[in-house]
Write the C-alpha cells for this entry.
Amino acid sequence: MKILFFLITLWLVSVPLYADKSDSYGKDLYSIKLQLKWRHQFQFAGYYAALEKGFYEQAGLDVSIIEGGPDIFPVAEVYNKEAQYGVCGSELLLHRLRGYPLVLIANIFQHSPLVLMVVDKSGIYSPIDLRGKKILLHEDGSDAEISAMLMSEGVDPQSYGYYDGSVDTDMLLEGKIDALAVYITNEPYLLKSMGMDIRVINPLKYGIDFYGDCLFTTEEEINNYPLRVRAFRQASIKGWEYALNNIDEIALLIKEKYRSDADIDMLRYEGSAIRDSLIMNKEVELGHTNPGRWEEIGKTYRRLGMTASSSRMEGFFAWEYENNESPEKLPSKLLPYMGIGILSLLAGGTLFFHIKLKVYTKNKIHSLQNFFSLPSYMLLVIDYNGKIKNYNQSWALLMKRYFGSEHPENIRQVLTGEDVGKIEKFCHMNDPLQSLISLEVFFKNAESSVWINLDFHQAFDEKLIYGIARDITEEKARNERMGESVEIAMENARKKTDFIASMSHEIRTPMNAMVSITQMLIESGLSIEQKDIAEILMVSQHNLLQIINEIIDFSKLEAGKDEVILDSFSIKEQAKSIYQLFEVMARQKKLDFKLNLIRPLPNFIISDSQKIRQICINLISNAFKYTEKGEIIFSVGLTEAGILKISVQDTGIGISKDDIGRIFNFYSRIERKGTVRQSGTGLGLVISQKYARAMGGAVTVESQVSKGSVFTLTVPVHVIN
Ligand code: ADP
C-alpha cells in the first residue's frame, strides 16, 4: 500500500513537469537512426518497445528504426553514416579487428542464435557427419561461430562453400544443400510447425559460445556524443526489459505496426525463445559485456584466419571512451527528467532496492555479473597455472593502460619475480587455512604509475583463484606522508628531550657548587640561628638537585642512553657518602636517620656505581619526603649468593595496597587526603626500577598506611675481596 502511495505521489510530482515542457517537444530531440540486422521480427522487440513506450523520447532521442534485409549490412550502413547505431552479431568484432572504428555499446543476446539445420533423414547428427557435405555459409563472417565449430570438430573448411546473398530453406528441403545456418528462434520452429522433420546442430554444444545481437556505434559518435550514446543504450535496455515482460503486447505491435511476415504465434514463440535461451535476463544483467569472452571470440577469428594474428581489440568497448572530454550538452528536454530521476532516486532508493532484492530472492538467482561490473574493484579469475580465465572491465582498463593492447594472458606476466614465486606456491597449496594471499604490485608507464593491492582467494572446489584488486596509490602516499610526519614528530620530541637534558645538566653543575658551598658555610662556625637558616637553604637546594637529577635520568632513558656501565667501587664508602648527603635534611626534619652496614661487607664490588647511587638517593629522598616523625634506616648488605641488598625503611605515611600497584608507573603520584602535598615529578621510582632491571635486579616495596614503608633494592654484583 505504501509502495502504491509512493508511486502515485511520484507520478503526480512528475506529470506537471513533463506537461510544462510538452510545447517544446520535438525541436529539442536528437534525431538518430538505428539500422536493424534483418526484417522486422521479435529479434528487435526491445527497440520497438523503447520507441512505442516513449523511452527514447524521455531520453531526448527521436529514433528511426530502419529495417534490414538480405542486401543490407548494418556494419556498412553505420560505417558509411547512413545510420548512427546498428544491430549485428559477433562479427562486429571481426570488423573492428579488420580496422573499422566500430564500438560495442551493449550485448543484448548473451548467446548466438545461429545453428546449423539439417533434415532428419539426412543421417547428420554432429559436425563430424558434415565432412564432405554441402554447407553454404556467409562470406562476411556473420556465420563464424558455425565455421569455428566445424573447424574445431575437424571438418575441413575446403569441404564447404561460401555464398553471397540469400539461401532459403527450400534449398535444404530439396536436398540442394545438406545443412543451412539459421536462427534457432525462427526457421526450426517454422518448419516444425509445418510438419517437417528437421534437426539442429548447435555450436554451443561444441564449446563455441559467441555473442548474439549487439548494439553498436562508431568511434566518431561516441567521441562526440558520449551522453547521447549512454542515453540511447539505457533507453534501449529499458525497451528490452519492457518487451521481455510483455511479449504478447510487443508481438502484436510488431505484427500490426511493423507488418512482420511472421504470424503472431511465431512472434510469440520467438519472444519466449529469445528471452529464455538467448538474452537470459534473469541470470545476466541486460546489456552485460564480458571482455574475456570477447577475447576468446577474437582468438577464434584469428584461428580461422579471418583476421591478421596481430589485430587488436583496442577501442572496441564503449567504456574505453568513458573519460573522454566532450563539449556535448544534454538536450534541455532531458533536464526535467533528470530532476525527476534524482527525486526518484532520493525518495525511492530504498524502495527500489527492496523490490529488486525481492525479485532476485524470488528467482533464487543472483546476478554475479552485477558484482563483476563494480567499477572500483578490479576482479579476475585465474586457474592453477596462472592463466587469466575471466576479468571485469576495470581490470581490462588497468591492463590496457599499463600493458597496452597486449592483454596479459597469464598472471605471471603481471607480477615480478618474487611475487610470481609466491603465487605459484599459493596455487599449489591445498591448505584451507591458507586460502588468501595479498600482494602489492606496482605498474608504471610513460605517463603514470599505480600501486595495486591484489588479494587472491582460493576456490578449492573449482580449482580456481579469485583475485580482487584495488588501487592503493593514494593510500600508500598517505601512509608515507604519515610515516614522514611521525618521523618529524619523533625527531622534534628527541630534540626537546635532548634540550631538556642538556639544560638540566647545565643547571646541575652550579647547583652542585651551591650545595658544597652551603655545606662549607654550615661548617664555618655560624651562630645557631645562622646555621639553621643555612641548613634550610641546603635542604631546598637538595630537593631541587633531586628534581634535576630525575629529569636528566629520564631523558637518558628516553634516548635509550641508560646502558649499564660497570666499575669497581667500595660499597661501604659509597653508602657513607650518600648518608652524609642527607644528614642536614635529617636534622632539619628532626628525623632519626641511621646508616646500617650489615657485615661482612666486601671491600670492592663490580657493578654500575652511578646507577646504584642514584637509586639510593631516590629512595632516601622519598623516605624524607613522606616521613614527618620517627626514623629512617638506610641498610646495606650482601647475601651469600652475592646479591647486594639495600633497603630504606621509614616510619612515614605508608602506601595503601590499592596504590602500591601504581607507584612504579611514569608520572604516577598518589594524592592523600589530610597529608601535606609534597613536590615531585612522579619519575623517581620508575627510573629506579628501570635502572635496577637494567642491572638484572629489582626494587620492591612493603608498606602499611600510617606505619611506614620499606623499599628494597636487590642487585647481583661481582665481589672482589
Ligand atoms: P615523586 O616525585 O612523586 O616522589 P616517585 O616515583 O618517587 O615520585 O614516587 C611515586 C609515588 O610513590 C609518590 O608520589 C608517593 O605517593 C609514593 N611513595 C614513594 N616513596 C614513598 C614512601 N617512602 N612513603 C610513602 N609513599 C611513597
About this structure: The radius of gyration is 45 Å. The first helix runs from residue 2 to 20. The longest strand covers residues 449-459. Confidence is low (pLDDT under 50) at residues 1-27, 335-367.
